[in-house]
Amino acid sequence: MKQYNTIKTKYPDALLLFRVGDFYETFGEDAVKASKILGIILTHRNNGGDRTELAGFPHHSLNTYLPKLVKAGQRVAICDQLEDPKQTKTIVKRGVTELVTPGVAMNDDILHAKSNNFLCAVHFGRKNLGIAFVDISTGEFLTSEGSDEQIDKLLQNFAPNEILISKAHRKEFEEIFGSQFHTFYMEDWVFQEDYALENLTGHFKTKTLKGFGVDHLKEGIIASGVVLHYLSETQHRQLQHISSLQRIAEDEYIWMDRFTIRNLELYHSTNTNAVTLLDVIDKTISPMGGRMVKRWLALPLKNIQKIRNRHQVIGHLIENESLLDKFQRNIKQMGDLERLISKVSTGKVNPKEVVQLKNSMEAIVPIKQLASHSKNEALALIGDQLQSCDVLRNKIKEMLSEDAPVNVLKGNTIAEGFSTELDELRGLAVSGKDYLDQMLARETEATGITSLKIASNNVFGYYIEVRNTHRDKVPETWIRKQTLVNAERYITEELKEYEAKILGAEERIATLEQQLFSQLVVWMQEYIAPVQQNAQLIAQLDCLCGFTQLAKENNYVAPELNDSTDIDIKNGRHPVIEKQLPLGEHYIANDVFLDRSEQQVIMITGPNMSGKSAILRQTALIILLAQMGSFVPAESAKIGYVDKIFTRVGASDNISMGESTFMVEMNETASILNNLSERSLVLLDEIGRGTSTYDGISIAWAISEYLHEHPARAKTLFATHYHELNEMSSTFERIKNYNVSIKEIKDNVLFLRKLKPGGSEHSFGIHVAKMAGMPQQVIQKANKILKKLEKSHSNEELTDKLQSVQNEMQLSFFNLDDPLLVEIKQEILHLDIDTLTPVEALMKLNEIKRLLTKNKKATS
C-alpha cells in the first residue's frame, strides 16, 4: 500500500490500475469508480487497520475493461511490474508504463477505425486563440490560430476527444465553447512561448519552425507545445511518427460557421436515427479513406485546379470500370496503414500486426502499377509517389511466419530458416517426442514391462509410470517419486537430463524470438515516413474511388467550376432526402439560378411542408459536394466557386444556455450579416418567426434589404411564409419571387414541390395541421377564424381582429334573425356524430353552453 500511495500521489487525477500478480487492482475511491463503470464487484480489506475498498480484474482482460474506462471519460494510469517477481526477494518494482486518456490512446478497442482520435489544446492569447490537434494513433499534428468563431468552427470540424486548457481560462472556455467537450486543465506555466518552442524544436530536431510554415503563429505554437508536453507527461515518448506540424490554412477552404455545419447535418444530426450527408457519401473501404473523407467534408476546397483534378479522376474511373474495380479490390486487402506504422514507432506493435502491415504493403504494388500507367495525370502522380518498399516487405516476409500470433510469447513468431540457432532449438523441442518414444521402447525391452508409460506434470516434470502388477520388475536404479492407487511413478537420470535440455530449449526459444522481433521493430522505424506517405495517397485514392461509386450508383454529374460568381443548377436534388424516399417515389428536382447582377436574392414563398427548406439545403450541399471534389446530384451544375456558406435554418432553442429561440436566431443572423463576402452563399429559412407577426415581417424585410444593398451583393435564398415580402420585388431590382407550387382539389392540397416564378398567396398551415391529425374541432375553429380575418383584411392589430371575431359571435340574443341560433344550428348540422368521441361531444356541448351564457350576460 505504501508503494501504491507513492505512485498514486504522482497521478492524483488518474484512475490507477495497479498490477498485483495476475490482476490489475484499484483501491479506495478509484475502486468505487471502477466497480460502477465496469460492473465488477467491490470488496474491501482492512490493511493495517484501515478499511480499503478494492476492485480488480485479470490482467489479460485489460483490453476489455480499459476502453470502457476511457469512454466513460476517465484518465487511466497503468502501473506494471517492472521486474520479474522470480528474480527479486523484496517487493517487486512497479511504475506507470502508460497513461491512457480519451485523447491519447493507441488501443484498437478504444479507437474508431474511420474517425480520428484528436487530442487538442486551446491557448488564450492576447488578441487571438491558438489551437493544436494531434492524433497519436496516426501521427497527424495540426495547428492554427484565429478568433473565437474560427476556433469554434475547428472544434466542430475536428471533434477532439479531449481538450487541454490552462486552469486560469477554465470559465472563459466554457462561456465561449460550451461544456460538451471533455476537458483537462493544465498548469499555467506550460503555456509559455519559449517553453513551447524548445519542446517543438527538440522533438523535430530542428533549429526553428520555419520549415513547417508555422513560425508566425505565436498562439498556435504555444498550443502545439502544450500538446507535446502532455504526451510526454502521459509516458508517450516514442513519437517519431509525428514528424511534421501542419498549418490548417483556413483561407484555402470554404468558410462555414458552426450553425451551418449543424444545420446542413453534415456529420451529426440532432435527431436520433437521422441520416447525415457523410452517411450518404462515404463509400470508402479503408480506415484511412474514411478519416480523409471526413476531412474533405470539413474543409471543402476553393482552389479550382485542385477541385478539377479530383473531378477528372472520377470521370476517368467512371469510363474505366475495370480500373475502379481493381483499385477497390486491392484497397480492400489493406489494414490501417497509418495506425499500424504508428504502433511500430511507439513500439506497441505485435507480430500479427507486422504481418498485416506487410500484406497491406503488398496490395500497394498492383495499385502503383495501375495508377502509374494511367492516362489521367492526377492518378499517374499518385502512382509515381507511392513507394513499394520492397526491402521492408522482403525483410518481414523472411523474418516472420505468415501466421504469427498476437503475442510473441505464444511462439512460432519467427519464420523457419531465418535463424540457425532458433531452428536447432526448435528441432530439439520437436525431436524430443521421437527421443521419448525411443527411450520408451528401450526400457520396455530391458525390463519386460509391456505397459510402461512416459508422461509429465508440473510438479515432478517427466516420469515413467508402472502399473502395480509389474512393480516387482522395476530396476533398482529408478527413483520412486509418487505412489498412486494402482500405479507407481519413477524418474531416471537419463529422463532428468533430457528434461533439463528440453525446458532450457523452450525458454531459450522464447527469449530469442522476443529479441529478434524487437530488433525487427526497431529496424522498421526507418520506414515510418514512406509508409505514412503511402497511407495518405491510398486514402486519397480510396476517397476518389468512393466518389466514383457514389456518382455511378446515384446518377451524379460532373459540375463545372469557374471564376464567375454565378450559380446555375439544373434539376438539382437533395443527396440525403432522395435516398430516404419510399420505393417507387421520385425526388422532384429543381433549378436554381443566382448571380450578382440580375437575380441576387430569391424569395421563396410557399406553404409549410412544400419543400422550401429542402431546396435551400440542397443548393448548399450541391456546392459543398462540388468543391469537395465529388460529382453532384443534378442534371448539370455551373458553379462560380463559393468562399463562405451561411445558413440560418429552423428554430433551435438554446434553452440550456438561457437563450430563447428568437435570441439564437438573431445571434446567428447577425453573425451572417457581419461576415458577408462577394462569393458568399446565404440561406435564410423562416427568419423572424420566433417573434410576433409584424415584428417578424419587419425584421425579415430589413434583413433582405440589407443583403440587397450591401456592396458584397451576396447570393441569397430566402424561404419565408410572410407573403408580404413578395412586395419587395417591385422596389428592389435584384430580388425575385418564386414559389413552391401546390394543387388544390376540393378540400385537399397536393404538394408538387416544384419551384416556379411568382409569389404564393396561401400558406395552408391549417391543411398541414389536419394532416398531422389535429382534432376536428381545432381545424374547424381555425378555418372559421381564418375566414373572418381574410374578410377584415384591414391593418388593425391582429389581437383586435381576433377580439372582433369573438365579439361577432356574441350578438344580441334578441336579434330577429337570431344569428346565434343560426350559428348553433350550423355547429350541430356539421357534427359528424359517428366519429365523435364522448369527450369531444361533451366539449362541444360545453362550447354551445358557453356561447349561450356569454350572450345572456351580455344582454342582461
Key structural traits:
Nucleotidyltransferase, domain 5, 6-stranded mixed sheet, alpha/beta, single chain, 7-stranded mixed sheet, Rossmann fold, 860 residues
Describe the SSE topology.
Blueprint: H1 2-10, E1 15-20, E2 23-27, H2 28-38, E3 43-47, E4 50-58, H3 62-71, E5 76-81, E6 94-100, E7 119-124, E8 129-135, E9 140-146, H4 148-158, E10 162-166, H5 170-177, E11 183-186, H6 193-204, H7 218-233, E12 246-247, E13 255-256, H8 258-263, H9 277-281, H10 287-298, H11 304-319, H12 321-332, H13 337-346, H14 351-372, H15 377-385, H16 390-399, H17 420-447, E14 453-457, E15 461-467, E16 479-483, E17 487-491, H18 493-524, H19 528-554, E18 560-562, E19 567-572, H20 577-580, E20 590-594, E21 601-605, H21 612-628, E22 636-640, E23 644-648, H22 661-673, E24 680-685, H23 693-709, E25 715-719, H24 728-731, E26 735-745, E27 748-757, H25 765-771, H26 776-791, H27 798-808, H28 819-829, H29 838-859
Parallel strand pairs: 1-5, 7-10, 9-12, 10-11, 13-23, 18-22, 21-25, 21-26, 23-24, 24-25
Antiparallel strand pairs: 1-2, 2-4, 3-4, 5-6, 7-8, 8-9, 14-15, 15-17, 16-17, 19-20, 19-22, 26-27
Helix pairs in contact: 6-7, 10-19, 11-19, 12-14, 12-19, 13-14, 13-19, 14-15, 14-16, 17-18, 25-26
